[in-house]
Design brief:
Layout (H helix, E strand, L loop, with lengths): L1 H9 L3 H12 L3 H23 L2 H17 L10 H19 L13 H6 L1 H20 L2 H12 L4 H8 L3 H18 L6
Helix pairs in contact: 2-3, 3-4, 3-5, 4-5, 5-9, 7-10, 8-10, 9-10
């Protein structure tokens, strides 16, 4: 259940979260600010992994929350607002890539400089593994890529991913199997 994840990461009870969402729906800026600080890091990580572009991820993170706020009256209490938020982010990312299709050739660089100095051999290997993983992710079909990122990096379960992508749970399972199969082939040189 989504609110369990919220509780573990934020200390909010299910009732607290429901109250927060109700306040957002009626235009409470302080409630929205709290919601923003709860979910902004995850949305940014998702967009950064999806786009491999820090500036675009920052911009689209802001756009995601702006769109969420402007459409707050449409939030359905029976659907999880977190899923709705990731759905907005995903759609913005897809639109961004459609407009800027050359961006997908960027690589994913997250090597810690201090670690590189202290453990150069390990960090050098890790850098290439991460870089190859990101390249392989970028080559996946859009649905496979989204499914893999939401599941493996963001921790969504298959039913939540199905809601975000507006597909069946079986489609999510199929997309995940396809993504794992393709990634195994593309990253076979790194697998022992």
């Amino acid at each position: 259940m989504e609110t369990d994840t919220i509780n573990q990461s934020s200390g909010l009870t299910t009732d607290d979260f429901d109250i927060l969402v109700r306040k957002i729906k009626i235009g409470d800026c302080e409630a929205f600010k709290k919601f923003f600080f709860l979910f902004q890091p995850g949305i940014y990580r998702f967009l950064y992994r999806y786009l491999c572009d820090k500036d675009a991820a920052n911009d689209l993170t802001q756009d995601t929350f702006i769109k969420f706020w402007t459409n707050r009256n449409q939030i359905n209490s029976s659907l999880f607002p977190k899923s709705y938020l990731y759905k907005i982010a995903r759609n913005l990312a897809i639109n961004y890539l459609a407009r800027n299709h050359s961006i997908s050739s960027n690589t994913f660089h997250r090597v810690d400089d201090l670690s590189l100095v202290l453990y150069p051999d390990q960090e050098y290997d890790r850098y290439f593994i991460i870089d190859d993983l990101q390249k392989a992710l970028n080559e996946l079909p859009e649905r496979c890529k989204t499914t893999f990122i939401l599941s493996r990096f963001e921790g969504f379960d298959y039913s939540e991913i199905a809601g975000i992508m507006q597909v069946s749970v079986q489609t999510v399972k199929n997309q995940m199997n396809k993504a794992i199969s393709v990634l195994k082939k593309r990253l076979s040189s790194h697998l022992v």
